[in-house]
Write a structure and sequence with these properties.
One of its GO terms (molecular function) is tRNA (5-methylaminomethyl-2-thiouridylate)(34)-methyltransferase activity. InterPro entries: MnmC-like_methylTransf (IPR008471), SAM-dependent_MTases_sf (IPR029063), tRNA_MNMC2 (IPR047785). This is Peptidase. This protein is of the alpha/beta class. It has one domain: Rossmann fold, CATH 3.40.50.150. It is built from 6 helices and 11 strands. The strands form 2 sheets. An 8-stranded mixed beta sheet has the order 6-7-5-4-8-9-11-10, with helices on both faces. Strand 4, helix 2 and strand 5 form a beta-alpha-beta unit. Helix 1 packs across helix 2. The termini are far apart.
Length: 224
C-alpha cells in the first residue's frame, strides 16, 4: 500500500494510506494522541516492578519512543519488556523523514530512535538499560501462536474499524486477553460501544476516559 507523510495539527508527522484514506495517527496530533492514550492512560497507571507491554501494532515506532521518553524520566528501578507486532514495516525513507526524535528536548532520543528502527525483527534487544524491545513481524491474528510472558499493559493501536473491522471484533480481543495477566490494563483510543461490550464479555472492567484532543472518549479496560 502506498503511503505518504503528513503533518498533524500538533506539528508531529504521521503516515497516510491513500488506498484506505486512513492516517496512522490522529490528524489532530500524532504525538499528543500517543502520550495521552498510551502514557497518561496506560504506562503511568501501571506500577509493576517488571512491566510487559504488548503493542498492536508497531507502525511508525512513535509509541515505543514516547514510552522510552517516559521511562527516562523515572528512577528506572524497574524493567520494561516491550513486544510489538507489525505486518508491514515502514521503510528507511519514512523513518528518516518522520524524525520523531526532533519532537523531544532530550538529545539521547535521536540515537534511541535510530536504534528502535535498526533493531532486527524477531530478536529481543536492550535499547537502553532496563528497556527491552522485541519487534515481531506478523499478522495480528498470529498472536495466538506467539510465546509471550504474561502481559501487564496492552497498547491497542490498530487501524480504525472503518477500514479494518475484523481488528475490533471478539476473536482478536480474545487472543489479546489470553496473553494478559490478571489486573493487566488494555488502553485504546477507541470508544466504540461494540468494543466495550466485547471487553465486558471477556471479563474486563471497562472504563470510558476522556479522549485525546479531537476525540471525546477513549477506553481503559482491566482484566479481572
Amino acid at each position: 500500500m502506498e503511503r505518504e507523510i503528513k503533518t498533524t495539527n500538533d506539528g508531529s508527522k504521521t503516515l497516510f494510506i491513500n488506498e484506505l484514506n486512513e492516517n496512522y495517527h490522529s490528524h489532530h496530533g500524532a504525538l499528543q494522541e500517543a502520550e495521552h492514550v498510551f502514557i497518561k492512560n496506560g504506562l503511568n497507571l501501571t506500577n509493576d516492578y517488571e512491566i510487559n507491554i504488548l503493542e498492536l501494532g508497531f507502525g511508525t515506532g512513535l509509541n515505543v519512543l514516547v514510552t522510552i521518553n517516559e521511562y527516562l524520566k523515572t528512577d528506572k528501578n524497574h524493567d520494561i519488556h516491550y513486544f510489538t507486532l507489525e505486518k508491514y514495516p515502514i521503510n528507511a525513507f519514512e523513518i528518516e523523514n518522520l524524525a520523531y526524535f526532533e519532537l523531544f528536548d532530550n538529545p539521547e532520543l535521536k540515537n534511541i530512535y535510530q536504534k528502535i528502527h535498526q533493531t532486527e525483527w524477531e530478536k529481543p534487544v536492550e535499547i537502553i538499560k532496563g528497556f527491552h524491545l522485541h519487534k515481531i513481524q506478523c499478522d495480528f491474528f498470529e498472536l495466538k501462536n506467539i510465546d509471550l510472558p504474561k502481559i501487564n499493559l496492552v497498547y491497542y493501536d490498530c487501524f480504525g474499524a472503518r477500514v479494518q473491522p475484523d481488528l475490533w471484533e471478539k476473536p482478536l480481543f480474545e487472543m489479546v486477553s489470553n496473553k494478559m495477566a490478571v489486573n493487566g490494563l488494555l488502553t485504546t483510543y477507541s470508544s466504540k460501544g461494540s468494543v466495550r461490550r466485547i471487553l465486558q464479555e471477556l471479563k474486563f472492567n471497562v472504563e470510558k476516559k476522556q479522549g485525546p484532543p479531537g476525540k471525546r472518549e477513549m477506553i481503559n479496560a482491566v482484566k479481572l
